[in-house]
User: Fold Alpha-1,2-mannosidase family protein from Beauveria bassiana.
Amino acid sequence: MSPPSEDQYDVYPVHLGDAASMNEKFVSWLFTFNDVLDVDKLHVALAQLLERGDWRKLGGRLHRTPDGTLKLRVPQRFTDDQPAVAFTKQDFSTMSISEHDLAKHLPKPRDLAYSQSIAGNMDFRSFAVPHGFPSTMKQFVAMQAPQIALLTTSFKDATLVSVVWPHTLFDGVGLTHLLHGWSLKLAGRDEEIPAVLGAKKDVLDALDTDTQPAAVAFAGPKLVRGLDLFLFIVLFLWHRIFYTPRDTRTIFLPRAAVDQISLEAKKHSGDAFISEGDAISAWVVKSITSAEPKPHPVTVMHLVNGRGRLKCLASSGGVYLQNIVSTAFCHLSSKVSGASVGEIAVESRRQITEQSSEEQMTLLLRRVRESLRNKKRAKLEFLGTPHSRVIFTNNLTKASYVQTADFSPAVIRRGQDDESRRNPKGTMVNYLHLVVNGHITATDNFYVIGKDHGDNYWLMATVSDKAWVEVDESLARLRTDE
Assistant:
């Protein structure tokens, strides 16, 4: 059968920030459910969601025009040949998840804190990424595949659900909105499904106008440029030789360990407020910096969600499915980076708060958007000094994936049904976040995955072997204190 002609598509733009080259990567989110789910019912509900209004944009095919611009072509009618979602299922329903050679090693809640490798032999990509999935944007565009791939793996007592998409589609909070709409559709609560806003006109265009207030100067560390930038690159490459991020692990912090980290941090925070997330992030940063023989200045790059901070996004009654993210550059001097977890947490929160105002975010996003419009690389080396080490982090706790996804209408039978179960029927135990082409190893990085239904925290990190020694020693102390 020949593909539909051009007039059989609805065309949507790929917004300026979405089309940034750094978003031309594929991400996978592997959700673990301790129930047996009707995966066909899950697929149908997701596909039907993508038939509603501008939710249809998510079912489009990426197309690159001769001048390099990306756009989305959405079939006016989804069919078996042109589906809204690329659905693949794997069936191991004759065995328990604990009997599968690889799946039995998926991270699980325990009584004590621990870390576990999810790289090498423990790489769970066979559950997270469909076989034959493209590795480059060029391949993906050539395939004319749906943007969202759904891969399910069924066991006798559990179900793994993976959602894969190009980051040009939306950011992490966009996934929250997708899980919410999917859950509502599954429950037949169509009238509660929010509308998609800004699908055809980029709401962030408002940032480019003079009516949008912007700060005069950036509140973060100074921009490193010229010879200082060259020196930073040399030092960065030298540092990677001895402190290359190698192993990617998940970290489990039970509630008692989180309380211990928070209590220890607050002993050195004075009267300043710090959240659990501040304390946990500072604990990881401290473990990374402690791996070096002497303290160095460190710049920690925190992703910041623009929703709720920018007035141009204040429209009610709908959701924005696009990348609406800025960065806060938290510069820690040698003195602070070598100080206590509490002191790191206080200084980090102060700088993040200062850089997350509407005026500051507008200034930075306007700078990025101008560079994208001119097809240039945005100069964002806000490092303070060329001697800075760089750590990347993203706290996804407020995205609340674990709490948002309610697939209870698709439950065939309960899987885990003992007193150790903490999550309601049809909700996930935890999840893994994977980049399809491999874990990020350019610099130390960690994600605060968030809380599960037992009020425990999950993290993922890729750091050097020396930093992992520090993390494991800290975890051992937490186990002793618990």
Remarks:
- Residues 205-398+437-481 form a domain with the Chloramphenicol Acetyltransferase fold (CATH 3.30.559.10).
